[in-house]
Design brief:
The complex is a heterodimer of chains A (393) and B (297). Chain A is of the alpha/beta class and 393 residues long. Chain A has 14 helices and 14 strands. In chain A, the strands form 3 sheets. Chain A has a 7-stranded mixed beta sheet, sandwiched between helices. In chain A, strands 2-1-3-4-5 form a 5-stranded parallel beta sheet, sandwiched between helices. Chain A has a two-stranded antiparallel sheet with strand order 11-12. Chain A is globular. About 2% of the residues of chain A have low confidence. Chain B is mainly alpha-helical and 297 residues long. Chain B is built from 12 helices and 2 strands, in the order H-H-H-H-H-E-E-H-H-H-H-H-H-H. Chain B has a two-stranded antiparallel ribbon with strand order 1-2. The termini of chain B are far apart. The mean pLDDT of chain B is 91. The chains are: A alpha/beta (393), B mainly alpha (297). At the A-B interface, helix 3, strand 7, helix 9 and helix 10 of A face helix 1 and helix 11 of B.
């Protein structure tokens, strides 16, 4: 009887060990994705970044995951483009879902606010499309970024203005860290470089829908160029309302980010988008890395359209975190931070990404090249838009 | 940078947007005067109107028949309100609820969240526009988009028609009687519960009309009604709760204050000038410009 009991117990233990594999091997590694999925944030950007991040998971999980078989998973939270929403989202992905790193940030204010919490919690952030200087200029150990920073964006458009001979420039910016940061930096660089540009800077509340009072002042100023520093709906409203007041197309408009490459752009601006200049960070003519080429193909198969920068960077940032986990040989956030600082990572663009402890705003920062494109006719595919300026050329 | 031309342009722009604001606020003040409740979901009915306009224009009638689309959109929102009222609002009077104000606040905020999230889930968070073929116009020195000018004229017409309805019809008489005293009207044979349903439908229909008219101007997206709610409440407090002329005067005053303030003081505080005006009015006339002082036992 005793013998039978022992055999039964042994058999049960054996069965249990077969049914229950080691916990460690199955536990997924969670990456936090804090993106704007509803207004007043820019939900289009949020969705595009999410698409890229999800495909990065497909890529790594298709290869068997990380750390010898652990799957990657995303914890997605909506920041609504609000700093307080971003902080709550960061706390949730880190506190509840145990994310080892958090990325996806699109609005600078959200990234800045989340970093203030992250510096005490210790889980790193990677800014996907946030450009305000403070994100990396504060030299927080946890703060990383793979997007164009304000000084480089401003340097690019000032060089472009010089080349085009624009002497009077109006800048209409939303009162966010992004908008105010760009206005301040533009003013600073004009003074520092002693450029012959007279700058009119005006700001508006992001929730405003009627920009007529600001645009009337722009019209009275008679600028050579109007820089549109709105994000999401305000950017679109400014395009329409500037045309209504007969400011554009006589005065050309430069949109401060790559929103015009989005599929719905021509549906919103069938008569007002022509000849628009806009900043871009990616051109289909660029050479891509191996994973970038895989991503482009997978994205086109899944969404039946070409990927845009937001998706590419969403993919790239999750890929960097996956590689950092692998190189750190563990999912401890501190080890990931150390690996991000010292390692080299494949990205969607060719060449390797590093995050050196560089001076000032260049701390933990990787910037893509800046392009200024211009539509040549209504309804034009952005991939055919003319490259009017490329940084470093 | 003061110039007479800029001042005139800013003033005209303020008047145009002010009349549009007034239309946004009219529904709120009307529902308050009849049903004695604040509808916090008013902006979402504006949003529904703008989506209806987008769908009707983009997929059915086309931009040339925008005015028919606007009427159909307002009617759609009217029916939505007419259907919702018996389910959510009527229990306020028939369900033995003691704290009606609290009930109305909770129910309409829940409705706000439901409608906003439904819109996001069904249509996505993206901006859309029904488009317009209306040519631009010159209002003196101010170039104005055809769609905004049409919205301005239509808002004036809607306010005039609404005033006529209230002043010259039996229905208007019943509505005015109910607004003065629900018990008195009921004693005189007015079916106030049926009238509540109609008033709620008309009120949200007015917001829907504003949404439809402004869809090509301010675009269509799930949270485009937020402005309606904030401006609407500023206007009804400035103009006086329940006052139609008050809504028109306060709307125009708010539009002018915002436009001149943003043009000549500081553009970043455009939304703050309305609150300054509101505080001023509350300090001088706590019941609003056209509000009536009520003595309650």
């Amino acid at each position: 009887m005793k013998y039978t009991s022992r055999v039964a117990a042994f058999a049960m233990l054996l069965l249990a060990s077969l049914v229950t594999p080691p916990v460690q091997a199955q536990e997924p590694v969670t990456i936090g994705l804090v993106v704007p999925l509803s207004p007043p944030g820019d939900p289009t950007a949020g969705q595009l970044i999410r698409r890229g991040a999800e495909l990065a998971l497909d890529y790594y999980n298709g290869k068997g995951g990380v750390l010898g078989g652990r799957k990657l998973q995303l914890s997605v939270q909506d920041s609504q483009g609000r700093p307080e929403g971003g902080v709550a989202a960061y706390r949730r992905v880190v506190g509840e879902d145990k994310a080892v790193a958090v990325t996806g940030f699109f609005h600078s204010s959200v990234n800045i606010a989340a970093n203030e919490v992250a510096k005490s919690i210790g889980v790193p952030t990677i800014g996907t499309q946030t450009s305000a200087a403070d994100i990396t200029a504060k030299h927080y150990e946890i703060a990383f970024r793979t997007h164009l920073i304000d000084p480089l964006r401003v340097a690019a458009w000032l060089e472009f203005m010089q080349k085009k001979g624009f002497k009077r420039v109006s800048m209409l910016a939303e009162t966010s860290d992004y908008g105010i940061g760009l206005v301040t930096e533009t003013d600073r660089q004009i003074k520092e470089k002693k450029l012959p540009i007279e700058l009119q800077s005006l700001t508006f509340d992001r929730t405003s829908t009627d920009l007529t009072p600001q645009l009337l002042q722009v019209k009275a100023f008679r600028p050579d160029l109007l820089v549109n520093v709105g994000v999401g709906a305000p950017m679109d409203l400014m395009i329409e309302q500037a045309a209504t007041l007969a400011i554009t197309p006589q005065v050309p408009m430069l949109v401060s980010y790559d929103a015009p490459i989005r599929p719905q752009f021509w549906q919103l601006h069938p008569n007002t988008g022509d000849k628009l200049y806009f900043i871009a960070y990616y051109s289909p003519k660029q050479t891509l890395s191996e994973i970038g080429t895989w991503f482009t193909k997978a994205y086109e198969e899944k969404y039946k359209e070409s990927p845009v920068y937001s998706s590419l960077n969403g993919f790239g940032d999750v890929a960097i975190i996956a590689q950092a986990v692998e190189q750190a040989k563990g999912a401890d956030p501190k080890a990931i931070i150390q690996t991000l600082e010292t390692g080299k990572f494949a990205f969607w663009s060719s060449g390797e990404v590093t995050f050196p402890k560089a001076d000032g705003v260049f701390w933990h920062n990787f910037s893509p090249p800046v392009l200024i494109l211009q539509f040549q006719k209504p309804g034009q595919d952005w991939k055919e838009a003319e490259v009017m300026f490329e940084s470093g050329k | 940078m003061f110039s007479f031309e800029l001042f005139t342009q800013a003033l005209l722009a303020g008047i145009v947007i002010g009349v549009i604001y007034a239309l946004m606020a009219l529904g709120i003040t009307f529902i308050y005067s009849i049903v004695k409740m604040i509808n916090w979901a008013m902006g979402e009915f504006y949003m529904l109107g703008s989506y209806a306009q987008y769908l009707i224009v983009a997929y059915w009638l086309g931009p040339d028949l925008w005015y028919i689309a606007a009427i159909l959109s307002a009617a759609t929102v009217f029916f939505a309100g007419w259907l919702i009222e018996p389910i959510l609002i009527k229990p306020m009077f028939t369900g033995g609820i003691e704290r009606r104000d609290d009930y109305a606040t909770v129910v309409t905020i829940a409705l706000l969240l439901l409608l906003r999230n439904l819109a996001t889930a069904i249509s996505g968070p993206y901006q859309r526009t029904p488009g317009t073929n209306l040519p631009g116009v010159m209002l003196g020195p101010l170039p104005e988009s055809g769609a905004r000018f049409a919205a301005f004229l239509a808002a004036l017409a809607a306010i005039a028609l609404f005033t006529l309805l209230l002043k010259r019809t039996w229905l208007g008489l019943a509505l005015r009687a109910t607004s003065q005293s629900r018990v008195g009207a009921q004693t005189s044979g007015v079916d106030v519960l049926s009238l509540d349903k109609l008033a709620f439908g008309i009120g949200v229909g007015l917001a829907g009309l504003a949404g439809a008219l402004l869809a090509p101007v301010f675009m269509v997206y799930p949270t485009n009604g937020v402005v309606t709610t904030t401006k609407g409440f500023e206007i009804i407090v400035i103009g006086g709760l329940g006052s139609v002329p008050g809504a028109l005067v306060a709307g125009v005053a708010l539009g002018i204050a915002e436009s001149l303030g943003a043009t000549f003081i500081a553009s970043a505080y455009q939304n703050a000038y309305g609150f300054v005006l509101l505080l001023l009015v509350l300090a001088l006339r706590p019941s609003g410009l056209f509000g009536e002082r009520l003595r309650q036992a």
